[in-house]
């Protein structure tokens, strides 16, 4: 039985023990991805690799992030489906998530550990299945997700929003194939869980097409203009959000003296975008639809993160996650395809070291945990 995780280095220790064992000793198979034959992990080892992270999320510590708030919400929710209607009448926003809480409690019982396990399983399996299919290095993609601390930030903390994020992320195949109607329906369902999911309605169109196309360049230009005219932007945003569930966002971040997203985290999110500029000619030559889309998604996430540095890290800084997940597919491809073999191996090793350093920085200095 897993116990409450208190030494967070175990998150990386599993990556370099169990994860590498699975990578080395399980054979991979060829399958079609975006019309091209690619080598991918088999399903069983891919799932085994993430199971510990699901269990750790279920038996998390009491004081990490919003865990206490979610635990109280679960304890106060009714445990009967017959009470759901009356309960939802009292909920003012994101009723889809409240309905899921009641459903889990009614069917699976009153254990909050089971509640956390169930949600973590949905989130992490959605991430794992997309990485397995679209990443050229599944192990490295999962490593980036863990070492960037996105796993802790979202699965152990902002899990309501991340549930919406991962549901949309699981629809990557639909977005790639431009099957917009089912993709939009999934986004609308996700928006009942967290209203910020509506941001993906325009984004699924913006990230289509060639890498670094005019739409993505407009995103970069828009982020620069917003940073230059932050005051006017916040006034416009305050007006647009009036009479919505987010009407107090601007006043809240101003009253809390929110000084914006940490520039170091912005740089971490921007690495795949910067490398795509370096390797633009190769990316254009390859014309891989998956890579084109992940480049464009990374540009969008970097643009939003830049805006968050001059506005709010608490509110705006929570939005890049809808697109930054694609960077963990893009970065392994860039290292493999944009550099000569020996240089690529060196950069691969340097990237691992740098992300471990960032993990330590985030955990010890930014959060004060390790």
From TrEMBL:
Q: Which domain of life is it from?
A: Bacteria
Q: Does the keyword Transmembrane apply?
A: yes
What parts of the sequence cross the membrane? 6-26, 113-132, 138-155, 183-205, 217-241, 261-278, 347-367
What UniProt keywords are attached to this protein's entry? Answer: Membrane, Transmembrane, Transmembrane helix
Give the coiled coil ranges.
none
A Pfam family matched by this chain, by name? EpsG
Record carries keyword Chaperone = no
| Stated name of the protein | EpsG family protein
